[in-house]
Design goal:
Distance between the termini: 15 Å
Structural class: alpha+beta
CATH class: Alpha Beta
Number of strands: 5
Largest sheet: 5 strands, antiparallel
């Protein structure tokens, strides 16, 4: 198992940079460009949600943490964490909003592109855990 941890102050620019760095890491393991595109979309959405919603005020002490766990030949796990106000799992709507809606597509997109979606809250840390299984041919041959 390979494990990588990326951290940033959760601004829109920094959250996008975390997603970009994660994709660079994944390119050493994943051969399928469509999977990499899906992962980029999921990570960009998840990290930008932290930047937009986790903290009441933008401060330099706020943190966004992305942990990537890779089990080559099996799966990839993303854990997107913050220490902000957190999400109420009962209020999350995983359905696609109407075409007129300005936002609200992120959770739908993440839940559709990943195999498992879990919200974890412990000791003031809020984590969205996302798991994606990959087929053998989607991995780089090493």
């Amino acid at each position: 198992m390979h494990r990588f941890v990326l951290e940033a102050i959760p601004t829109p620019e920094e959250s996008r940079e975390v997603a970009r760095k994660a994709i660079l890491i994944l390119k050493d393991f994943v051969a399928d460009e469509n999977v990499l595109h899906d992962m980029d979309l999921v990570l960009t959405e998840g990290c930008s949600n932290v930047a937009r919603h986790a903290y009441e005020e933008h401060e330099d002490c706020n943190r966004l943490e992305l942990t990537i766990k890779i089990k080559p030949g099996k799966y990839i796990i993303f854990e997107i964490s913050d220490w902000g106000k957190g999400l109420c799992s009962k209020s999350i709507d995983f359905s696609m909003p109407s075409p007129e809606a300005v936002g609200g597509r992120g959770m739908f997109i993440m839940s559709e592109l990943m195999d498992a979606f879990e919200l974890i809250q412990e000791n003031g840390k809020n984590t969205i855990k996302l798991t994606r299984k990959l087929k053998e041919e989607q991995w780089l041959k090493k």
